[in-house]
Amino acid sequence: MRKFLSIVALHGLLLCSTLVSAASQEAAEKISLGKKLLEQGKVEAAISEFQKATVIDPKYGAAQLNLGYAYERANLSDEAIDAYRKSIELEPRNFYARNNLGVLYVKKGMYDQAIAEFQDALKNEPGNAMALKNLETARKNKTVLQEREAVIARAEKEVEAKPSDPTPAYQLARVYATYGKKEQAIEWLGKAIGQGYKDIAYLKTDPAFANIREERDFQLLLLQR
Description:
This protein has about 220 residues and is an all-alpha fold. Helices cover about 70% and strands about 0% of the residues. The chain has 2 domains: about 20-140, Serine Threonine Protein Phosphatase 5, Tetratricopeptide repeat; about 160-225, no CATH class.
């Protein structure tokens, strides 16, 4: 359900200004080396260089920016989020840090936070096509999530209203399975069968359970009948 969101590459964003302090110059050299290592696919080594840059000059926003990107390359989302936040603290108008932070928030399902970051990114670069696309996608995904939660809530209320009826329990299992919540789906399917659900022939072909039909726990439920 989530649409792909572009993550902008940070190549070429090594220096915020041509006039840098001695400490920042040394940090910039570390960033330059880290960039080369990233291009070579040596992500861990690049992270090490970017980390050194942040120690050399803690106020150098480009160091945190590139460190965040390297963490992303290493699939270290939490660390990347922390680095981007620090970059934004140092440079609140940094478009790239806000855009990339928003992308990571989307991946975590934190849509309100993502939307806020994309909006702030657009304040810094009005009309930026990538940020506009990301903002639109985040809003759509938030709507999808809200609709899904509403469907689940309705199914749960039906179960509460008829706690001994296997049909609402079965329907709740279908809803959970449809949204990829496998453990909950199997749990409620087990309850439905325990409460007397009998149409096992349909259960075996019900398309709602296509994504869990081969699961061991699902197969064990079928053996109970």
